[in-house]
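S.,

As promised, the S-adenosylmethionine run. Input:
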Amino acid sequence: MSTPTHWDTAYAAGDTTRGWYQPQAARSVDMLDQLEVGTDASIVDIGAGASVLVDDLTALGFTDITCVDHSPVGLAIARERLGAAADSVTWIEADLRTWSPPREYDVWHDRAVLHFLLDDADVERYRATLLAGTHPGSVAIIGVFGPEGPQMCAGLPVRRYDVAMIDRLLGTEFERVSSNIADHVRPDGDTQQYLWTAARRR
Ligand SMILES: C[S@@+](CC[C@H](N)C(=O)[O-])C[C@H]1O[C@@H](n2cnc3c(N)ncnc32)[C@H](O)[C@@H]1O
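Predicted complex:
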Protein backbone atom coordinates (compact mmCIF):
# COMPACT_ATOMS: atom_id res chain seq x y z
CA MET A 1 0.00 0.00 0.00
CA SER A 2 1.21 3.53 -0.78
CA THR A 3 1.87 4.92 2.69
CA PRO A 4 3.89 8.02 3.61
CA THR A 5 6.34 5.79 5.49
CA HIS A 6 6.96 3.74 2.36
CA TRP A 7 7.83 6.86 0.39
CA ASP A 8 9.81 8.45 3.24
CA THR A 9 12.03 5.35 3.31
CA ALA A 10 12.47 5.46 -0.47
CA TYR A 11 13.48 9.14 -0.44
CA ALA A 12 15.75 8.68 2.57
CA ALA A 13 17.73 6.12 0.53
CA GLY A 14 18.65 8.91 -1.90
CA ASP A 15 16.23 10.81 -4.11
CA THR A 16 18.61 11.05 -7.08
CA THR A 17 18.93 7.26 -7.31
CA ARG A 18 15.18 6.57 -7.34
CA GLY A 19 13.82 5.23 -10.62
CA TRP A 20 11.58 8.24 -11.22
CA TYR A 21 14.35 10.80 -10.65
CA GLN A 22 15.06 13.24 -13.44
CA PRO A 23 17.66 16.02 -13.21
CA GLN A 24 15.32 18.40 -15.02
CA ALA A 25 11.56 18.38 -15.57
CA ALA A 26 12.10 19.17 -19.24
CA ARG A 27 8.98 17.54 -20.62
CA SER A 28 6.70 19.26 -18.11
CA VAL A 29 8.29 22.63 -18.84
CA ASP A 30 7.96 22.04 -22.61
CA MET A 31 4.28 21.18 -22.19
CA LEU A 32 3.67 24.33 -20.16
CA ASP A 33 5.33 26.26 -22.95
CA GLN A 34 3.22 24.56 -25.63
CA LEU A 35 0.08 25.37 -23.64
CA GLU A 36 1.26 29.00 -23.44
CA VAL A 37 1.08 29.05 -19.65
CA GLY A 38 2.44 32.35 -18.36
CA THR A 39 4.69 32.72 -15.33
CA ASP A 40 1.81 34.39 -13.44
CA ALA A 41 -0.14 31.09 -13.50
CA SER A 42 -0.79 29.20 -10.28
CA ILE A 43 0.55 25.65 -10.44
CA VAL A 44 -0.11 22.71 -8.17
CA ASP A 45 2.25 19.74 -8.44
CA ILE A 46 0.36 16.70 -7.21
CA GLY A 47 2.61 14.15 -5.52
CA ALA A 48 5.58 16.45 -6.04
CA GLY A 49 7.83 14.62 -3.61
CA ALA A 50 11.44 15.72 -4.16
CA SER A 51 10.78 16.59 -7.82
CA VAL A 52 12.94 19.24 -9.49
CA LEU A 53 9.91 20.72 -11.27
CA VAL A 54 9.64 23.34 -8.54
CA ASP A 55 13.29 24.32 -9.13
CA ASP A 56 12.73 24.65 -12.87
CA LEU A 57 9.54 26.69 -12.41
CA THR A 58 11.18 28.98 -9.87
CA ALA A 59 14.13 29.54 -12.22
CA LEU A 60 11.69 30.42 -15.02
CA GLY A 61 10.00 33.05 -12.84
CA PHE A 62 6.83 31.27 -11.73
CA THR A 63 5.82 32.70 -8.38
CA ASP A 64 2.68 30.77 -7.42
CA ILE A 65 3.73 27.15 -6.94
CA THR A 66 2.16 24.59 -4.62
CA CYS A 67 3.70 21.18 -3.95
CA VAL A 68 1.46 18.49 -2.45
CA ASP A 69 2.71 15.13 -1.20
CA HIS A 70 2.08 12.79 1.71
CA SER A 71 5.81 12.15 2.21
CA PRO A 72 7.37 14.77 4.50
CA VAL A 73 10.85 13.44 3.65
CA GLY A 74 10.29 13.93 -0.08
CA LEU A 75 9.04 17.48 0.39
CA ALA A 76 11.89 18.29 2.81
CA ILE A 77 14.49 17.28 0.22
CA ALA A 78 12.99 19.70 -2.30
CA ARG A 79 12.71 22.48 0.30
CA GLU A 80 16.31 22.14 1.39
CA ARG A 81 17.56 21.98 -2.17
CA LEU A 82 15.71 25.19 -3.04
CA GLY A 83 17.09 27.11 -0.10
CA ALA A 84 15.66 30.60 0.37
CA ALA A 85 13.46 30.21 -2.73
CA ALA A 86 11.48 27.56 -0.85
CA ASP A 87 9.89 30.28 1.25
CA SER A 88 7.83 31.46 -1.71
CA VAL A 89 6.49 27.95 -2.43
CA THR A 90 3.41 26.54 -0.70
CA TRP A 91 4.18 23.09 0.71
CA ILE A 92 1.24 20.86 1.61
CA GLU A 93 1.70 17.52 3.33
CA ALA A 94 -1.46 15.60 2.51
CA ASP A 95 -2.82 12.37 1.11
CA LEU A 96 -4.31 13.28 -2.22
CA ARG A 97 -7.05 10.67 -1.66
CA THR A 98 -8.53 12.83 1.10
CA TRP A 99 -7.10 16.26 0.25
CA SER A 100 -9.50 19.11 -0.47
CA PRO A 101 -7.80 21.77 -2.59
CA PRO A 102 -8.00 25.12 -0.78
CA ARG A 103 -8.30 26.97 -4.12
CA GLU A 104 -8.58 26.50 -7.86
CA TYR A 105 -5.25 26.37 -9.70
CA ASP A 106 -4.50 27.41 -13.28
CA VAL A 107 -2.33 24.32 -13.77
CA TRP A 108 -2.69 20.81 -12.35
CA HIS A 109 0.52 18.82 -12.78
CA ASP A 110 0.98 15.15 -11.96
CA ARG A 111 4.01 13.10 -12.93
CA ALA A 112 4.05 9.50 -11.80
CA VAL A 113 1.40 9.67 -9.08
CA LEU A 114 -2.02 8.80 -10.53
CA HIS A 115 -0.80 5.35 -11.59
CA PHE A 116 -0.37 4.34 -7.94
CA LEU A 117 -4.13 4.58 -7.38
CA LEU A 118 -5.39 1.05 -7.93
CA ASP A 119 -8.96 1.27 -6.63
CA ASP A 120 -11.60 2.69 -8.95
CA ALA A 121 -12.98 4.63 -6.00
CA ASP A 122 -9.60 6.33 -5.46
CA VAL A 123 -9.37 7.21 -9.15
CA GLU A 124 -12.87 8.66 -8.97
CA ARG A 125 -11.84 10.70 -5.92
CA TYR A 126 -8.75 11.88 -7.82
CA ARG A 127 -11.06 13.06 -10.59
CA ALA A 128 -13.25 14.90 -8.08
CA THR A 129 -10.14 16.56 -6.60
CA LEU A 130 -8.94 17.50 -10.08
CA LEU A 131 -12.29 19.19 -10.72
CA ALA A 132 -12.32 20.89 -7.30
CA GLY A 133 -8.78 22.18 -7.79
CA THR A 134 -9.24 23.65 -11.28
CA HIS A 135 -11.53 26.08 -13.10
CA PRO A 136 -12.65 26.52 -16.72
CA GLY A 137 -9.52 27.43 -18.65
CA SER A 138 -7.17 25.54 -16.29
CA VAL A 139 -4.80 23.05 -17.85
CA ALA A 140 -3.93 19.59 -16.62
CA ILE A 141 -0.61 17.91 -17.40
CA ILE A 142 -0.56 14.26 -16.41
CA GLY A 143 2.30 11.83 -16.94
CA VAL A 144 1.58 8.19 -16.07
CA PHE A 145 2.94 4.81 -17.06
CA GLY A 146 1.78 3.96 -20.58
CA PRO A 147 0.43 0.65 -21.96
CA GLU A 148 3.95 -0.78 -22.17
CA GLY A 149 5.11 0.80 -18.93
CA PRO A 150 6.25 -1.13 -15.87
CA GLN A 151 3.77 -2.98 -13.68
CA MET A 152 5.60 -2.06 -10.47
CA CYS A 153 7.37 1.07 -9.29
CA ALA A 154 9.07 1.80 -5.99
CA GLY A 155 8.08 -1.71 -4.91
CA LEU A 156 4.39 -0.96 -5.47
CA PRO A 157 1.98 -2.22 -8.12
CA VAL A 158 0.75 0.39 -10.58
CA ARG A 159 -2.08 0.81 -13.06
CA ARG A 160 -0.91 1.39 -16.63
CA TYR A 161 -2.84 3.88 -18.74
CA ASP A 162 -3.85 4.22 -22.35
CA VAL A 163 -5.45 7.28 -23.93
CA ALA A 164 -9.00 5.97 -23.49
CA MET A 165 -8.45 5.59 -19.73
CA ILE A 166 -7.13 9.14 -19.49
CA ASP A 167 -10.11 10.38 -21.49
CA ARG A 168 -12.44 8.68 -19.02
CA LEU A 169 -10.63 10.38 -16.15
CA LEU A 170 -10.83 13.79 -17.80
CA GLY A 171 -14.50 13.31 -18.64
CA THR A 172 -16.50 15.92 -20.52
CA GLU A 173 -15.09 18.70 -18.34
CA PHE A 174 -11.68 18.63 -20.08
CA GLU A 175 -10.66 18.73 -23.70
CA ARG A 176 -7.54 16.72 -24.40
CA VAL A 177 -4.99 18.88 -26.23
CA SER A 178 -2.25 16.30 -26.70
CA SER A 179 -1.12 12.87 -25.64
CA ASN A 180 2.30 11.43 -26.26
CA ILE A 181 4.21 8.30 -25.42
CA ALA A 182 7.73 8.97 -24.17
CA ASP A 183 10.45 6.95 -22.47
CA HIS A 184 11.89 8.04 -19.15
CA VAL A 185 15.51 6.99 -18.67
CA ARG A 186 16.01 5.95 -15.07
CA PRO A 187 19.25 6.72 -13.21
CA ASP A 188 20.27 3.05 -13.68
CA GLY A 189 19.85 3.37 -17.46
CA ASP A 190 16.62 1.35 -17.82
CA THR A 191 13.73 2.99 -19.60
CA GLN A 192 10.07 3.27 -18.63
CA GLN A 193 7.23 4.14 -20.96
CA TYR A 194 5.11 7.11 -19.94
CA LEU A 195 1.91 8.47 -21.42
CA TRP A 196 1.85 12.27 -21.21
CA THR A 197 -1.42 14.12 -21.61
CA ALA A 198 -2.20 17.81 -21.74
CA ALA A 199 -5.83 18.92 -21.40
CA ARG A 200 -7.70 22.17 -20.99
CA ARG A 201 -10.80 22.52 -18.85
CA ARG A 202 -13.91 23.62 -20.72
C1 LIG B 1 7.13 8.13 -8.27
S1 LIG B 1 7.09 9.47 -7.16
C2 LIG B 1 6.98 10.88 -8.27
C3 LIG B 1 7.38 12.15 -7.58
C4 LIG B 1 7.37 13.38 -8.47
N1 LIG B 1 6.07 13.63 -9.03
C5 LIG B 1 8.40 13.29 -9.56
O1 LIG B 1 8.07 13.36 -10.72
O2 LIG B 1 9.59 13.19 -9.20
C6 LIG B 1 5.42 9.38 -6.53
C7 LIG B 1 5.14 10.43 -5.50
O3 LIG B 1 3.75 10.37 -5.18
C8 LIG B 1 3.60 10.51 -3.79
N2 LIG B 1 2.32 9.87 -3.44
C9 LIG B 1 1.96 8.59 -3.68
N3 LIG B 1 0.72 8.36 -3.23
C10 LIG B 1 0.30 9.53 -2.69
C11 LIG B 1 -0.90 9.94 -2.05
N4 LIG B 1 -1.92 9.08 -1.88
N5 LIG B 1 -1.00 11.20 -1.61
C12 LIG B 1 0.03 12.08 -1.77
N6 LIG B 1 1.18 11.76 -2.37
C13 LIG B 1 1.32 10.49 -2.83
C14 LIG B 1 4.82 9.84 -3.20
O4 LIG B 1 5.09 10.25 -1.88
C15 LIG B 1 5.89 10.26 -4.19
O5 LIG B 1 6.48 11.46 -3.82
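The mean pLDDT is 97. The chain has six helices and nine strands.

- D.
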